[in-house]
Structures are given as structure tokens and as C-alpha cells.
Fold this sequence. Notes:
The structure is a homodimer.
Chain A: H1 6-14, H2 16-27, H3 39-55, E1 59-63, E2 70-75, E3 81-87, E4 107-111, E5 114-118, H4 126-143, E6 149-155, H5 165-171, H6 173-176, E7 180-183, E8 195-200, E9 202-211, E10 217-218, H7 219-222, H8 229-239, H9 261-268, H10 274-279, H11 294-300, E11 303-312, E12 321-322, E13 325-334, H12 340-353, E14 360-369, E15 372-373, H13 379-391, E16 397-401, H14 406-415, E17 419-422, E18 437-439, H15 440-457
Parallel strand pairs in A: 3-6, 3-7, 7-17, 8-16
Antiparallel strand pairs in A: 1-2, 2-6, 4-5, 5-18, 8-15, 8-17, 9-13, 9-14, 10-12, 11-13
Helix pairs in contact in A: 1-4, 1-15, 2-4, 4-15, 5-14, 13-15
Amino acid sequence: MSARLDPVLARLDAGGDAALARLFDLLRIPSISTDPAHAADCARAADWLVRDLVSLGFEAGARPTPGHPMVVAHGGTGARHVLFYGHYDVQPVDPLSLWHRDPFDPALEDTPAGKVIRGRGASDDKGQLMTFIEACRAWIAEHGALPFRITIFLEGEEESGSPSLVPFLRENRDELTADLALICDTGLFDRDTPAITTMLRGLLGEEVTIRAASRDLHSGMYGGAAQNPIRILSRIIASLHDEQGRVTVPGFYDGVQELPEAIAAQWQGLGFDAEAFLGEVRLSVPAGEAGRGVLESIWSRPTCEANGITGGYTGAGFKTVLPAEASAKISFRLVAGQDPLKVRDSFRTTVRAMLPADCEASFAEHGASPASVMATDNPAFEATRKALSAEWPREAAFTGSGGSIPVAGYFRTELGMDSLLTGFALDDDMIHSPNEKYDLRAFTKGMRSWARIIDALAE
Amino acid sequence: MSARLDPVLARLDAGGDAALARLFDLLRIPSISTDPAHAADCARAADWLVRDLVSLGFEAGARPTPGHPMVVAHGGTGARHVLFYGHYDVQPVDPLSLWHRDPFDPALEDTPAGKVIRGRGASDDKGQLMTFIEACRAWIAEHGALPFRITIFLEGEEESGSPSLVPFLRENRDELTADLALICDTGLFDRDTPAITTMLRGLLGEEVTIRAASRDLHSGMYGGAAQNPIRILSRIIASLHDEQGRVTVPGFYDGVQELPEAIAAQWQGLGFDAEAFLGEVRLSVPAGEAGRGVLESIWSRPTCEANGITGGYTGAGFKTVLPAEASAKISFRLVAGQDPLKVRDSFRTTVRAMLPADCEASFAEHGASPASVMATDNPAFEATRKALSAEWPREAAFTGSGGSIPVAGYFRTELGMDSLLTGFALDDDMIHSPNEKYDLRAFTKGMRSWARIIDALAE
Lengths: 459, 459
């Protein structure tokens, strides 16, 4: 029993409905950062958060950037200074037809696995960031003030490559540099096992457009005489992997290390069920590099994927066109040792070398962030691991993550600050997909987890 | 001088503005047959034609089909019976942003090469079919009646695979069977040289959709573990051609003959300028089968092209999704000797054989029509060649065509009727592309050409 923590937990338990109502308010704002049509919605989400944080006593503001605003809020006093990071922007919602409700009209739904909060951003990342804000709210309500200095830093461009992040960190280095960053944008290892993510893949995003003729052509008139950008683009994408599933871009694996045996053994001990992981999305055979397990493939191996492709006529029916251009969005997940800019250069050189006569390629950048490996010897890691283990049925684990949280890398390179990543999402939350959800249990135990972590870090 | 023909030609010359106004009325109707949203517009175009033909004394009606209506009109009397075929439906207009005016607000525009009629369908095929109707109008106005029986048969699904055509021909065999079909949906050989098209490629349209996971996945969470349908589809498309540009579908070239030397020599004599043909659309190197010329490739060799591809996130910005599915529209241009259904079966078998575990392919049909070779020994061919040669600066030529006019094949197989194809389009008419046009000269000399042909066939 803890006289300092227990009343905060009790207050969180009593205030669940009000916390949920606040989250729903935030989820109703369609803050899709990648779509320029939603710029005003992003600003609205930032303002909503500023108002809420000011109401808690934070000194908070929505700070302009060339893109969407950053929310920065300061609360608490003392020598210890912790920065909390989350993002208020969300992914696009297409294909809308696959949602069973309006993505921006959130609701609590009953499912066989329990109650879930349904809506875009419920898990990634509005639900997660609100677990921290609610823990602060309860702490302040109970004790009058936070137990140490907390800066809350909420980004609005995480889902669109964070173009303003590094300049903003540089311009506000002193204000944002703390002893440690807490980042809440990752998941539980499984329903009952909390995780602190200590390895994160980096991400390189490239958009390539192939152009041939000066205009769309009739395939009857020109078929057999003119280049077809769809065929060229298909050939390029097909060539990016060999028969063993390895990426063929020259130099791609330079610097990539095999997983240390100690880490491999720890991951082995997690009892990961690859069959169930794949089966949940109706797959059965791991599709990555031959001879590597699923956990190794998604946590510690680099990949190359096509995330989108378009060219020619894609409407209903048929149109016998030879299109003038075709384009694809290609992403590379990167691991420790890989230089994103070297990979980009090699990729572009490879594509250009494959172009036949009369064809040209152009490229658009969509971010380039390196992988991160966390400093787990910081005592905050063990304190947090214990706090999480007290809240959840199983002991917390140090894990890897296939996703990219570029901000962790930038906190290190720009601010010299370590990051501790923990969060409460689940693999089946359908983030970036239709019908995104966040378990109500993740939200309630997430708030309680942060109260415990704040308590642990206050020691 | 011909007392029967000359006054008809004079009447056509005097009535040019009124003929153009009628064509504009028809062009204003957005009869895009492949898009279900335009079904009512297709019906409106059919009704417009029926009203116009009834006003000329034709017994005309818009006849229902499971798709868009067929226009059938009967005029004239006598033992000789000729059927005229055209189509009133048009291609989609995307990308709309590349049009320099509303595609359905036609106008006469001045260009360095002379006046053109700008608008979707101006060349393909509304402008062309109206050249025949205007010739009939002038003939009837001058002589009180047509010189022989003419049935006008106008389709509304030519640009969407003609799904209702064969059943309609079968159900109305007696009514539609004539001594010869005149089909106006092809082009001049060049500005000054009219053409009678005697070889036509067939067309097989297939839409293939590759599915893997049960939903879109996050490429961070699943990248390296899950199949990516875009990669699989790209690999399939890339594999459809070998390094020599030959189609790899097994059995694809079964039955395909090399071009007879006599025809090759005749085509050689046409003085085709491959460099100018490709240069007009900013290309320089023929992209088809290695070692074959452009004219041979587009008139007498079969091809395979991807006409459209889509998968994953294709909007602005970036989305790190592993899509659940990706699809492509693939078409095959076929030549004499190829069986469309055998090619379809082999294509589908080939695709299915390339699927890795956990992936499935589904197929949608978009037409399957064989190539056609015309019966040039029918005396109407020589009569028409002479009539065309009298109107245009150069002698008319017998040519091939890379495009597909499936109706010519169906007239033969379903009605036992030969077809004679002539028309006045040019390679730079941008049919199926933005800014479609029809030369005013093609329209006026086209009307005069049909008057001459009607006169020649009346002998």
C-alpha cells in the first residue's frame, strides 16, 4: 500500500467515464496530418489539448511550425525533469467502405474480447497520449501538484514523416531537453504482458514515379510500340527482393548485425506464438527472409515494402490505355547500423539503372529516420518495468518493435536525451487500418500504469 | 460528273454548320458506358439518335438490353441491304485535370494543323457515326429516298466490352443480317490517305486481384512477416514478358503466323514514319518485340499490357500500410490464329501458379474477342476504295489496325456477314486520352466520302 499512489489509482478508477468522454471529444476531430484538407482539424486538435492542459494548471501552448502545430506544456517543479511525447495526428481512413461506423464518431463497443473504443486514433495515438494526461490530472487533483517537472510534447505530424520535428527540437533545445523522455506510442507484448520497447526500426519513405510517353496512349494504337510505365514499375518492384526474400538494393545490409544470442534467447523466452500472430490476419507462412523467425524478422531485420501503387485506369470497368505514368510508395524499415540516406541513394541509383530508353523516374521524399537502440542501463528502465509489472498480470518485458518511432532517435541526436517507450496498444488494434480500436482495458490500465510510473520515478 | 452524286455533295457542303451543330448536341451528352453513374446519359444519347433518325424517315428505336440500349433504324428499299455500325458511347475522361476544356462542352478550335472539333467522343465514335447519318440526310433530302436498304445499328457498350452485343445479334439475327456491314470506327492511314482496314487485332481484357491478409496491415508491425499483394502483383506483371519483349504466357503464340511477304511489302510501300509516330508522343525507341518494326508490331503482332494498377495508399503523403489486396487491369491484343479463351485460361493458370502461400487471385472478365481478317474479294471493297480515292488527295490503301473492333468478328460468327471498315480518324486524335479531337476536315470529307460510297454501292 502506498499513501501517495493508492488515492490516485482510486481517483482514476472513479473517473473512468469522464476520462472516456474527454477522449471521445478528441477522437471526434479528424486530424489526418498527411491530407492538406485536414490542416484546420489538426490545429483544432492541438487547441483542444492546450485547453485541457491549461485547465490542469500546465503552462501550455500550440506552437506554430511550417506544418501542423506542436503542443508544448510545462507542469510541476523540482530537479527531476521528464518529457512525455505522444502525437495527436492520425492516419487517413480509406477505404472508408470497410469501416463499420464513422471513423470520427467514436463509440464504446462490446466484443467477445471485451469492451473496445472504436474510432480512428483510438489506439494510435490519441487514446495512448490521454492515458498519460489522465494520470497527471488525477495526480494533480489528489496531491495539488505533480511530483516533479513534466513537459508534455505532442506532435501533429507523426503520421506524415514529422517534417517539422527536427527543426523544432533544434530551435527549442533547452526547453525540451529533460532527464528522460517517456514515449507512449507502442504496445503491450500481449494482452497480459506489458512491454518496454528497447529496439526500434527506422523508416525510409520514397515515392517513385515512372514516366514514358508525353500522354496516355490507346493500347490498340500504341501497344507493342510504346513503353508502359506500369510494366516498368512492376519490374522495378519485383526486382527489389531476391528469391530468399532478401532486399537486393546494393549495400542495403551494410552494417546490419546478427541478433546477439542473449537477446535472441530473451525473445525466445517470451513464448511468441507466430502461428496465432499470422492466423489473426488469415496468414500462415512467414513471408520475410528465408530461415528467420517472425519476431526476429519484424523486430531486428530490415525490410522493403510497397505501400501503395497506382497507374492507368483504376475505375470501374475497363479502359485500354497505356498510361503516361505510374507511381509507387516504397518504404524501408531499417535496423541499427543502416544509414537511411545511403539506402535512399542506392535505391534511387538502382531504379534509374533499370529504366529503358524513353523513360524517366522522379522521386519524392517521405522521411528518413535511423533505427534506435535504447539505453536500458538508465535506472528509470528498471523502475518502470517494476511499476508496469505491478499493474498487469505478467512481468513487463524488454522487447523490440517493427514499427518506427523516429522521435526517439531525434531526442538522442538532437537533444542528447534517452527515451523510454511503453504503451498499451495490441497487435489487433488495427492501427492504420479500418475499424481501429483501443481496448477499454488498455485505456484504464494504461492510466493506472502511468500513475504507477510517475510514482516510481518520483522516488 | 454524276447527276446523282454531285447535288448530294453540294448539299453536304452547304449544310456544314447545321451538321456540326447536330454533332455538338450529341457530344454534349456524357455517355460513358463503363461508368454506371452515366447509364442515364447513355440512354439519353440513344434517344437523341432515334429522334434524329426518325426525323429522316427511318423506322428507328432504342432497343433495351441488360446494359445500355442499342439503336436500330431501317431506311430505304430494294434488294441490296447494307448495315452501318457505329457506337454512341465514349471513354471515361480522367484525368480531368489534363483537359484544357470541359470534355462535354465541345467547340471548334483553331490549331496549326487546321480547325478541330474538341471534345470526348468527337473522333471515337460520335463524329464518325454522324458522317454517315449526315450523308444519308443529304441523300434523302436530295433524292427523296435512299438508293437501297440501309439498317443503322449503333451500340452503346463498345468502350466497355460490348457485353450485350452477341446476345442482341442472336436475338435479332434476321433483322440485322445484311449483304455487308459498313463499320465506321477506324482511321485514315495519314492526313491525305484514306484506308480500308482489313486486319484487326482482337482483345482480351482481364482484371486480376491479389489478396493476402484479411485486412490492411501496419508495415512496421507486419513488414517482414506478411505477404504484400503489391509485390506479388508486380512480380506477376514483370514476368509476363521476357527480355526480348515476348509474352511469356504459355501457348500465347500458338497459331500466330508470320506476316505474308506480299502484305509486308504493301505496308512497306506506305512510307510509314516510325520516328515521327513515336516522336509525336515523346518516344524514340520501339518498345515491343525485339527485331520487329512498329507497323508490324501494332498491326500484326499480339501484345500484353497492364492498363491500370492500384493497391495500398495512393493519396497525398505516405501511409505505411501493407495492403490486403492489389489489382491490375491487363489486356491482350490478339491476332489471327489466337483463341481468346485459351489465352485467358493460360493467363489465369500462370498467375495462380505464381502465388505464394496465403495468397489468392480472383479474376474479372472484360471481354474476349478474336482478331478479324476481312474478305477483300467482295466487290464492295474495290468500289469503296475507288470512292474514297476520288474524295481524298491520295489513293485509298488496305491496312491493318492495332485496335480492336470486336463487332466485325461477331458480324461474321453470329450473322455470317462480312464487314468493310473505313473511317476518318487520325493517330493524333487522342482518343481514350484527354483533349480528344476530330479534324473538321475529317468530318466534312467523311460525310462526302460516305455519300460517294453510297453512290458507288448503289451501282
